[in-house]
């Protein structure tokens, strides 16, 4: 990874932090994106101390906000000459009805539209690398999304919660497969993964109930370092240098759910996401 440049969202904690530290230890230049300045700064300094790699930087953004996504993408392109690895990892579960600043259901806004918009904004920088890799952290939760109607995703009739999380993870995989089709013939690969049930603070935005959920995840879950194994594999392994449009579990490609292979559904999700994010429009001031 010497000379490689990696951008990792949600890099101040959990899986993102573990991946960032591992890639920095291998000599990569690592830029972590976090929401909280003190936490993200502390994570950056700890990674530098642990790895003796001074080429670790951070950017700040609330990635549920499209304006913030556009701003951090512009900052990344100004900071970096190119991008070899983009790890879309930032996400959360919202157990009640929450809305983004644009009025979109928060889980869908953060877990899917963030991936979609940031990736599209950074594509030209990824094209500047000899070979680039896009890695989307999804989940096995995509296998049971319940009633999945595209038109309901930005404003579902239910209150969100875990069903919204499962729908967002299906969106991650539909987006991965559709982007792989659109990038066919280019030197950019795009793959998705399930990291396992990992001990993270994924439900931290939900008060007391979120702390209870995180406690039980902590009891049953694996360590973030274990959850980082598959994204690190996808970032560095020569075995997957030309592999694209796949879903990985435990560093192996496996079939995803049958609905995730619906190409018409994926194309419609792309068009709706492009409309909701105004992809192609100039960044908001």
Radius of gyration: 17 Å
How many DSSP-defined strands? 8
- Strand order across the biggest sheet? 3-2-1-4-5-6-7-8
* Helix fraction by DSSP (H/I, runs of at least 4): 40-55%
Structural class call reads alpha/beta
Relative strand content: 5-15%
Which segments are poorly predicted (pLDDT under 50) over 5 or more consecutive residues?
Answer: 208-216
How is the biggest beta sheet arranged?
8 strands, mixed
* Span between termini: 35 Å
Nearest-integer average pLDDT: 90
Global morphology: globular
Helix run count: 9
Taken in chain order, the helices and strands follow as EHEHEHEHEHEHHHEEH
What labels would you give this structure?
alpha/beta, 8-stranded mixed sheet, 44% helix
Short description:
The chain has 285 residues and is of the alpha/beta class.
Descriptive report:
The protein has 285 residues and is an alpha/beta fold. It is 44% helix and 13% strand. The protein has 9 helices and 8 strands. It has helices at 14-25, 37-51, 66-79, 106-127, 161-182, 207-220, 224-227, 229-236, 263-277, and strands at 5-9, 29-34, 56-60, 85-88, 132-137, 188-194, 247-249, 252-253. Strands 3-2-1-4-5-6-7-8 form an 8-stranded mixed beta sheet, sandwiched between helices. Helix 4 packs parallel to helix 5 and helix 5 crosses helix 9. The longest helix is centred in the middle third of the chain and has 22 residues, at 106-127. The model is unreliable at 208-216 (pLDDT under 50).
